[in-house]
Write a structure and sequence with these properties.
With about 190 residues, the chain is mostly helical. The chain is built from nine helices and no strands. Keywords: Membrane, Transmembrane, Transmembrane helix.
Length: about 190
């Protein structure tokens, strides 16, 4: 498969994911739809190295992730961050709860190394998954090196639809609250 065809296929998958998300008003998240399309593509006719053929492999990811983190850091408003302290506390408690559950229940089911390899993507996302995978390869634990990426994908396949549903519910709550405030202000 040529470079142009591979690039077009990847961009088409991203476009279809965005289109589906827009049409369903984010009931079907774009990342979820794109992930499903890629899985179907890899199961059927995509070459296994299509991402590397186009140049979006690990080298590209290792360049883009730090740039994205710096960009997000520069866009962050510290005053707003202080105002959102409850959300930060909830997020930190979620991380602590995930770690505690994995280390207690997870170690009852799997060995300690497997649990340790799977926790970072659950609490730290893509960056944590890439770092853990690289470190496992460096430690010659090749059998566990793919686990963080699999955990990230599985977490996403379950998490994206749930997140979309909860955000839609929150949107409805905020929308009715704003409408009530507007109607109250109009009546006064």
């Amino acid at each position: 498969m040529g470079l142009f065809v591979s690039f077009t296929l990847i961009m088409s998958m991203l476009f279809i994911g965005e289109w589906a998300s827009t049409k369903t008003k984010a009931v079907v998240p774009s990342l979820f739809m794109t992930a499903v399309l890629f899985v179907l593509g890899f199961w059927t006719f995509f070459p296994k190295d299509i991402v590397e053929q186009v140049g979006f492999g690990m080298t590209f990811a290792k360049i883009c992730v730090p740039l994205t983190l710096v960009h997000l850091g520069t866009k962050m408003d510290l005053r707003q961050l202080v105002d959102q302290w409850k959300a930060i506390v909830i997020a930190l408690l979620g991380v602590c709860g995930t770690i505690a559950l994995c280390l207690t229940i997870g170690t009852m089911i799997f060995d300690f190394r497997t649990v340790i390899a799977s926790v970072p993507p659950l609490v730290g996302g893509l960056v944590a998954a890439l770092l853990m995978s690289d470190n496992l390869k460096a430690m010659n634990l090749d059998t566990l090196a793919a686990l963080p990426i699999y955990m990230l994908m599985f977490h996403g396949l379950l998490g994206y639809p749930i997140t979309a549903m909860l955000l839609k519910k929150r949107r409805q709550t905020l929308k009715s609250r704003i409408q009530n405030q507007t109607s109250t202000a109009t009546n006064n």
